[in-house]
Amino acid sequence: MKFNIRGENITVTPAIREYVEKKIGKLEKYFEQKPTSDVNVNLSVYNNEQKIEVTIPMTNLLLRAEESHVDMYAAADLVVNKLERQIRKHKTKVNRKLRQAEESPRYGFAETVSANGQEDHGDDDFEVVRNKRFDLKPMDSEEAILQMNMLGHNFFVFVNADTNSTNVVYRRNDGKYGLIEAQ
């Protein structure tokens, strides 16, 4: 793996660089061939919060995780755990589809074995626990933000009155708002 590590409001010391490369490098065991893409790591510090963002672009798959902690080394550990879960989930999903279709491609994931000698099938499934239907009302983004805040949600789906397309407003981690527009 090739690493692109940059710091925002922090100097990336050789010790931090070595630790991050070592921790993220352990993810190579999940692949039959080492990923050839660059691993983008962004380290940032705001107030007392240390944040690490990792993006690993691959063919037909984008692995991305971010974590915040008071300690940069702990944040690196947490982000690697998140990435491992993502890889296991994706591998389980791919293997399940392959078993159903009885095909042979493996998508580059190596077989992993847990500590008890059993094949690791992942421990997380995606399950829809609730389904909602509602009519989308034409409105502008400001009105959608007000509706979202009144409902106490983190996002709100609406029809943009100006473009007549489906949009989503959401609350960002920094407390500001974002808008997603469908093309």
UniProtKB/TrEMBL annotation:
Where is this protein found? Cytoplasm
| Residues annotated as domain Sigma 54 modulation/S30EA ribosomal protein C-terminal | 125-179
Does Iron-sulfur count among this protein's keywords?
Answer: no
Recorded GO cellular component terms are: cytosolic small ribosomal subunit
Instruction: Output the GO biological process annotations, alphabetical, semicolon-separated.
Output: negative regulation of translational elongation
Q: What is its main location?
A: cytoplasm
> What are the protein's GO molecular function terms?
ribosomal small subunit binding
Q: Which residues form a coiled coil?
A: 73-100
Alphabetized UniProt keyword annotations: Coiled coil, Cytoplasm, Ribonucleoprotein, Ribosomal protein, Translation regulation
Name one matching Pfam family.
Ribosomal_S30AE
Reading the lineage from the top rank, the first entry is Bacteria
Q: Which family does it belong to?
A: Belongs to the HPF/YfiA ribosome-associated protein family. Long HPF subfamily.
What this chain does, per the record? Required for dimerization of active 70S ribosomes into 100S ribosomes in stationary phase; 100S ribosomes are translationally inactive and sometimes present during exponential growth.
How is the quaternary structure described? Interacts with 100S ribosomes.
This chain's protein is named Ribosome hibernation promoting factor
Biological source species:
Schinkia azotoformans MEV2011
What lineage does UniProt assign to this protein's organism?
Bacteria, Bacillati, Bacillota, Bacilli, Bacillales
Gene responsible for this protein: hpf
